[in-house]
Amino acid sequence: MDSLPTLIARHPFWQGAPPEQLAQLAAFATLEHYGVGDLIFQERHPATHLYLIQRGHVALEAFLPGTGVTTIVVLGPGEALGWSWLFEPYQWQYSARSVDATEIIAFDAGRLRALVERDPAFGRDLITRTARLLEQRLLAERVKLQELQAAQTPRLDEVLAESEEDPEPFVTPRT
């Protein structure tokens, strides 16, 4: 089995990071394991870690009034999970649940933020990596919203078929 520093260095989120930076990160990282359906973090609770998925899959979920809990996206190996730890008020905007047996590298958020304060170059690098992550999530949400809207909006051919079945006579309004 590979060491934690090796796993961190191989993960796409940290790809190309300098060796000294990777060594600092390994000092406050842990390897966590989750079973099928385990809650990793919950929406509106304190955001305490950055997670990197090594093995398995994680569903990002959101509670939508009138709909209930909806899966926004399912993430897999090589993907990063969570950005809420970086921005005040440091609360998760989504919930995350393991879909199958999942192995995740977890980085302590407080230590990450302290490293950002001490090392501006690391901070810029981390913000850039996180911005890429945010872009991916926004695109995933857009696709999910399009799917939800498509499910609720009748297609044009359905509307036309209904109008042919029960045509209402056109009446000119009197003035």
Key attributes of the depicted protein:
Jelly Rolls; alpha+beta; 5 helices; four-stranded antiparallel beta sheet; 175 residues; 8 strands
Task: Explain how this protein is built.
With about 180 residues, the chain is α+β, with helices and mostly antiparallel strands. The protein is built from 5 helices and 8 strands, in the order ααββββββββααα. The chain has one domain (about 5-145): Jelly Rolls. Strands 1-8-3-6 form a 4-stranded antiparallel β-sheet. Strands 2-7-4-5 form a 4-stranded antiparallel β-sheet, covered by helices on one side. β4 (about 60-65) and β5 (about 70-75) form a beta hairpin. The protein starts with a helix and ends in a 10-residue tail after the last helix.
Write the topology of this structure.
Layout: H1 4-10, H2 19-26, E1 29-34, E2 39-41, E3 49-55, E4 58-64, E5 68-75, E6 80-81, E7 95-98, E8 102-108, H3 109-118, H4 120-152, H5 156-165
Antiparallel strand pairs: 1-8, 2-7, 3-6, 3-8, 4-5, 4-7
Helix pairs in contact: 1-2, 3-4
For the record, the count of structural domains works out to 1
State the major sheet. 4 strands, antiparallel
Task: Output the helix-strand order.
Answer: HHEEEEEEEEHHH
Q: What percent of residues adopt helix (DSSP H or I)?
A: 25-40%
Total beta-strand segments? 8
What is the typical, i.e. mean, pLDDT?
Answer: 87
Helical stretch tally: 5
Give the strand content.
Answer: 25-35%
CATH class membership: Mainly Beta
